[in-house]
Amino acid sequence: MSTTDNLMEAVDLHKAYGPTPALDGAEFAIRAGEVVAVMGPSGSGKSTLLHCLAGIVRPDSGSVLYRGRDLTAMSDAERSALRRGEFGFVFQFGQLVPELTCVENVALPLRLNGTRRKEAEARASEWLARLEVGELAGKRPGEISGGQGQRVAVARALVTGPRVIFADEPTGALDSLNGERVMRLLTDAARDTDAAVVLVTHETRVAAYSDREVVVRDGKSRDMERVA
Amino acid sequence: MSTTHPSPGGGTLATWVRDLGLGIRFAVTGGREGWTRTLLTAVGVGLGVAMLLLAAAVPAMMGARNDRGYDRDYSWFNEPPKRTASTVLFAPADTSFRDDSIRGLLLKADGDRPVLPPGVEAMPASGEMVVSPALKKLLDQPGSKLLRERLDYRPAGVIGDQGLLGPAELAYYAGSDKLVARSQDGSTGNATRIPHFGRGESKPEPLGGVLTMLVIIIVVVLLMPVAVFIGTAVRFGGERRDRRLAALRLVGADSRTTRRIAAGEALFGSLLGLVVGTGIFLITRQFSTEVTLYDISVFPYDITPGPGLAALVALAVPGAAVAVTLLAMRGIAVEPLGVVRKATAQKRRLWWRLLIPLAGLGLLAPLFGTVSQEDAGVNPYQVTAGVVLLLVGLTTVLPWLVESVVGRFRGGPLPWQLATRRVQLDSSAAARMVSGVTVAVAGAIALQSLFTGVQSDFVTATGDDPDRAQLSVSQSVDSGAQAQRVEKAFADTPGIRDVLGVIQDDAVQGNASTLKSEDITYATLVVGDCATLRELARVGAGCADGDVFLVQDPGGYGDMSFAKPGDTLDLNTPVTDKYTGTPQPWRIPADARTARSRVSPDGEQTWGVLATPAALDVAALPSPSVRLMLRTDPGSPDAVEHARNTAARIDPTLTVFELTATHESRKFTTIRRGLFIGATATLALIGASLLVSMLEQLRERRKLLAVLVAFGTRRSVLGLSVLWQTALPVALGLALAIVGGAGLGAVLRTMVGESPHVDWASVGVMTGAGAGVVVLVTLLSLPPLWRMMRPDGLRTE
Amino acid sequence: MSIGHTLLGLLESGPRHGYDLKRAFDGKFGHDRPLHYGQVYSTMARLLKHGLVEVDGIEPGGGPERKRYAITEAGITDVEKWLAQPEKPEPYLQNTLYTKVVLALLTGRSAAGLLDTQRSEHLRLMRELTERKRHGDLADQLVCDHALFHLEADLRWLELTAARLDLLAAEVAE
Ligand SMILES: Nc1ncnc2c1ncn2[C@@H]1O[C@H](COP(=O)(O)OP(=O)(O)O)[C@@H](O)[C@H]1O
Ligand SMILES: [Mg+2]
């Protein structure tokens, strides 16, 4: 694996919350269009790794290179702009703004980027339809099921055409059937748009949608492809 | 153990007690979260309770102050008391230092067992004084040199608390051997003889009808927001509580049981709030000695609520807490799997919400035009109920207003959209948040317009013109020569730029000695130089020493028919109804001119015979007095203190007046000050409750905020949306407050017989104050918002 | 797995030739182990003898693969009974894995490491199955899911065991 094809690459990440090290020399690399599962027991540092990669959290040391730029050297505003423009996010639950309708929720990242409301909502509707929840456009998150909500969240993560999608336990709160559907729709869409997916999960069946997996234990990462 | 099973019917006392007890247990043992919630409620309710207790203590406080004021006061007797071993001579010697007024009394004992004013242990000997602790402190300050010079007595003791209205009162009693009892006709002597201190049987005059109404409305307006605040405080952390109740439903509690458990939690929180409130009350009471608000200071022990009012607070607060909780829970259904809000399904109706203010109006309307200051008979219950209903009506109309206005908003920029959607989803929470501000501002606007309506009854224009002269002094003197010495003393005082002085006396008809007393007519005789006379009448540029001017009374009462050029006047004016002494004729020069009167700087319209010194020898005047108007040097702020010192040297009872354009009735002033104190406290309380609700809203959205930040949302977008989210309901609340407040103000003004016009200036000020509080609260909630926008919120619990 | 019951079940949707039966079986259930023709013959002969199937017709040319079979009433009842009866839980892979984990602990190796390697191996297969699921029909998906859930169950058991043993090791080391 040559470093130059990597879309994103993290080297020797350290991050501690108080005395507990959450990351202790973790490494990570992902190529465009690749789906990488991050696995490991709970509390091992998976979410922290994802947050560092996405520029949500600044690691104590180490670097995160994204298309040649070091995220750790960027200002908060620059990282925010990057997240708005090039990244998409799916979390476990509770991520939809409860007072906005589904289509407004999906349109949100576009509007953050300055797209006009009409156009943003038109594109949001397309994505909702593509994720098979087009009929929910006018409903509020409180009126739909968890699986539907998660598909709306996937639509929201994809609507800006991001290069990297960060998904932290996206199926954690779903039953198997809905989990499968969400994973399938997410990975299909990512393939179609050649987006990379960082998929944090502790479920092997969900990880099976990935191209390869990285295991995190005690803040240290282990790339199973390189080991094998 | 059948009692431990939840009974499905659940109406008996036993189930109530059990479920309330369960609620109390949850409030105590609900872990960290349960405790935080209970504490928040307790502190919120406690603040409200402290306010209520303070308000409940006001009547007793005023009573105690009044009593002490009466006990140390003095009466004048028609028949002067006989001199005995216990009688005392006194003369008031009040003064002012900078902005503080100082109560002063000169005393001289007639015998060896003199009566003593309250708080004084021994009669101060001549040249000595006893002072209040606050005055002692003031005198000891290095900046009080001028005051020390003025009160040039040896301190011989301290006035005890029972002789003072409040701890910060400045007062002294000084011994003086120069006091001489005033003669019956008042022509000689400078002091009054009294057999005891205190007003004896005479009681404070009752407040007139208008003032009573003002007081009622002030109390209502100030306490309504406190009630609203307590209502809010009881709901603190309500959403989390609902989630916990849902968990209880899951294990089999029925919906009535959950309601009772919630009531139990609220009961416990409010009981704790009572304890906290009493604590806050007792602690703040101790600090009352340190605080002087708007010139009023009180002793801690004066702030004691009457037992009836205290009991009312102790019962009403927990009762209201339970009632509010049960009412709030009617709007939601706690289901085993979570909380469902019922309210949103149905659109709010306006008609019954309007019934409440209309009922209030119905109560007040019969009183239109009937309330007057002369007539104390206002039915306080009718007025209170009417005003309360009108104001409560605003809080019931507000949710409808918020819903129907915000419901129309679509789209807009992102922060605006986030905010409007949020308010649309839960318009009752938004309305609840601002109902306190709405009531307070509406009440304040109504009060203000009532105030401006009635203040002409209480605030009188003095006619003073502080631009032409700043101080005035009047003093009777023994002779014209002494009058000139007084004038010179002030002219030599530092900081006094100019002295306009006249010497005045009265004159009667030339043949007064032969007239019956009822036929004797008086005219004023004024002697001064041309420059001074020019301030009193339009004597013209041609005035020269030796001229005499005749000035008609513009008020029309004075009679100048016997004082025409060439007429002879008698300067020996009788002091009683019988003419005594020998006539002292003076002829008005034939070339005396007439002149029109002009308002003098000290606000008077002088009339009579105005003479220049060469025309009338002041030495000839039998009972002259000197009237001075002083112009101070604007660069010398202590000029007035120097002038007072000069006055004190001449005569300790001589007062220097500062000329001001208006004068307010003292009682009115007190009420107005009370209002300002109360309004300040109320606004602070409202700000606090707004802040807590806002932080609570933010905390509940922590996770969501973190997700939005992960998305790369700019801080400004979230900050603006929080601002809009508050500003929108506040704007609607304030709009309603303006309409309601102006309406209530018009109603109140109609009641006291004034025209129902709106005082836009006070509307502006009050609305601005309300808006200011909101802006402040929003600013204060920004740092927590920034903190909450960190990725910590992404962690799932 | 009972081949007889499976073939009977396939006949329920309509009569089929022998070679047709084998193709259907292989396509749906025999991804890992295709059926021999001989197995089909012998099974069908047994079913015929018990009256669970009957010969519906023979195509000209002869040979057993030319026979068309149809299910009988008795056959349908038999399939129904089989479907209603729960399978005996069978420990199979666990035995080997358990042996490995215990061995790792005894030799001072990390059970977690073993888990990660085993999971990687499992995942390789699971990815294949997931990919097949993407393109297959519903029956394909059901079959793949069945395999996936079993593989996952192995891993989860292994994960728990590894965590327990690591805890135990930490206690022993103290
Ligand atoms: N904001 C935080 N404050 C304190 N400790 C944290 C914070 N975020 C994570 N941690 C700690 O860091 C470690 C790794 O957490 P995390 O990355 O969330 O693990 P995972 O996602 O694998 O379950 C845990 O011990 C967790 O308690
Ligand atoms: Mg995590």
From TrEMBL, chain A:
A Gene Ontology molecular function term of the record: ATP binding
CDD domains attached to this UniProt entry: ABC_MJ0796_LolCDE_FtsE
Gene Ontology cellular component terms for the protein in this record: plasma membrane
Keywords recorded for this protein, A-Z: ATP-binding, Nucleotide-binding, Transport
The ABC transporter domain, residue ranges: 8-227
Coiled coil stretches, renumbered: none
Alphabetized Pfam families for the sequence: ABC_tran
Annotated PROSITE patterns: ABC_TRANSPORTER_2 (PS50893)
Keyword Signal: no
SMART domains on file: AAA
Keyword S-adenosyl-L-methionine among UniProt keywords: no
Protein name: Putative ABC transport system ATP-binding protein
Organism, as annotated: Actinacidiphila glaucinigra
Organismal lineage: Bacteria, Bacillati, Actinomycetota, Actinomycetes, Kitasatosporales
From TrEMBL, chain B:
Subcellular location: Cell membrane
Keyword tags: Cell membrane, Membrane, Transmembrane, Transmembrane helix
Annotated GO CC locations: plasma membrane
Residues that span the membrane, as ranges: 39-62, 210-234, 266-288, 308-329, 350-369, 381-402, 674-692, 730-748, 760-782
InterPro entries: ABC3_permease_C, Membrane_comp_ABC_pdt
Domain of life: Bacteria
Membrane topology (UniProt): Multi-pass membrane protein
Pfam families assigned to the protein according to its UniProt record, in alphabetical order: FtsX
Domain named ABC3 transporter permease C-terminal: residues: 216-328, 678-782
UniProt main location, coarse: membrane
Name this polypeptide is given: FtsX-like permease family protein
Organism per entry: Actinacidiphila glaucinigra
Automatic annotation (TrEMBL), chain C:
Keyword entries, A-Z: DNA-binding
Pfam families assigned: PadR
InterPro entries: Tscrpt_reg_PadR_N, WH-like_DNA-bd_sf, WH_DNA-bd_sf
Domain Transcription regulator PadR N-terminal: 7-77
Keyword Lipid biosynthesis appears in the UniProt entry: no
An example Gene Ontology molecular-function term: DNA binding
Keyword Cell wall biogenesis/degradation: no
PANTHER family according to UniProt: NEGATIVE TRANSCRIPTION REGULATOR PADR, TRANSCRIPTIONAL REGULATOR YQJI
Protein name (Swiss-Prot/TrEMBL): DNA-binding transcriptional regulator, PadR family
Species of origin: Actinacidiphila glaucinigra
Lineage start: Bacteria, Bacillati, Actinomycetota, Actinomycetes, Kitasatosporales
